[in-house]
Structures are given as C-alpha cells and as structure tokens.
Amino acid sequence: MQYIKSATSARDQGYLDVAASASDAENGKKGMTMQQDRRRPWFTLSFLITTGLITTLLLLLVVLQTDHTSKEVVSWPEFQGGSRVVADCGYSPEEAKAKGCVWDLMSFGWTHPACYNKAESEKWLKDFGPWKWYLDLNATQEVAEKDLPYTELVYAEQGYHVQHCLYVLKLLHLAAMTGHPVTDEAIPLAHTGHCTKMISDPAYLDFKHINTKVDLLLARCVTLD
C-alpha cells in the first residue's frame, strides 16, 4: 500500500522521484514478504495435519480390514452349524409318517415339511431320474421304487450318487441365502468333502455302474447357525 501511495504522489507532482520510488518499492516488497512468511507456517501446519489425518485413517482401514479377513478365515473350519433342530422324523418310517414327514427320493429318506423342498426334489427327479436300485452290490436283486421308503439299505447307480450330492449342495446353498432350515445330512463338512472328491474323480464317470451303498435317512431339520 505504501508503494501505491508514493507512485500516485509523484505522478500528481508531474515528476517521478526515482530514489523515493525505489525505496518505497523495496519497503512494499518487504511488507509482502513478511505477510507471506506469516502465512507460510500456518499453511504448512494445516497441510501436515490434514495429510497426517488422512494417512492415519487409511492405515486404520487397512488394519481393520486385515483383522476382519483374518478372523473370518480362521473361523471357517471351526464352525459346523446345525445345532438347532427345528423338526425331526423319529427313528422309523412309521414314526416319520406319524410326524407328518414325506418321502424324498433325492435325499433317500423321510424329511419333515419344514425342510423339504418339494419343487426342487421333483425337478431333480424329472431332469435326472429314474435310477435302478438293488439289494446287493452285484445287482442281482432289484428293488421296486415303491418299496424304497421302507428299505433300510440299497445299492444304487453312480448317477444317483452324483445327483444326490448336487441336490444336497443346492439345498445348502438355498438355505445359506434364505435362512431356511435344511436336513442335517447337508451340514457336516465331511459330506461336502466326500461329494466334491467323488464328483471330480475320473474313476466314477460311469453313471450306470452299481457302486453306491445308500442307507435310509430319517432326517432332522436344522438351521445353519
């Protein structure tokens, strides 16, 4: 401001005082420099604080995410679920019928309506059945389908074995998405491990081969928690 006043005064007098103008200009520059110097520490401090806060937040997010992922991975093998039983079919076909359970060929067992998926079972039977059933591994004594609900043990084709596994895995997937109860057969990790290993094994590609021992199931309906 001093530099501007000095220049205006010299112009009013009709001449330019070079020495005065130079001095005033220098004073103006010093004033501007001092103001800039006063502003610079505050700007630097604000920048450092802001940068520090952002860095801290990013590090916190990384730590939380890493900790969350680590806990999830560790907890997977320890959790089986199925501890809460919603309904059961007793210990015999007669008791199962008395409890209102229905025969589900895809599970090869009696299943309570609380965890029986009629539409899915019928679709699977239509798309992939029928299969043959025998009382012996040599396939000499065939069992009629109407007798299966009361037969404790049969031998089935490999094709049924594969479709049974896939059926149970799909029901488990549906239960995980909806919270719907599922049969207790679907819960153990050992069952999933058995199914995935069997399906991927090239030794079991002959779907007509009689090689599957099937026990009659009297299912319990359980939740995934």
UniProtKB/TrEMBL annotation:
State the InterPro entries in the record: Phomopsin_biosynth_assoc
Query: Which keywords has UniProt assigned to this entry?
Result: Membrane, Transmembrane, Transmembrane helix
Question: From what superkingdom does this record's organism come?
Answer: Eukaryota
Does Transmembrane helix appear among the keywords?
A: yes
Give the residue spans that cross the bilayer: 42-64
Its name, as the record gives it, is: Major facilitator superfamily transporter
Q: What is the lineage of its organism?
A: Eukaryota, Fungi, Dikarya, Ascomycota, Pezizomycotina
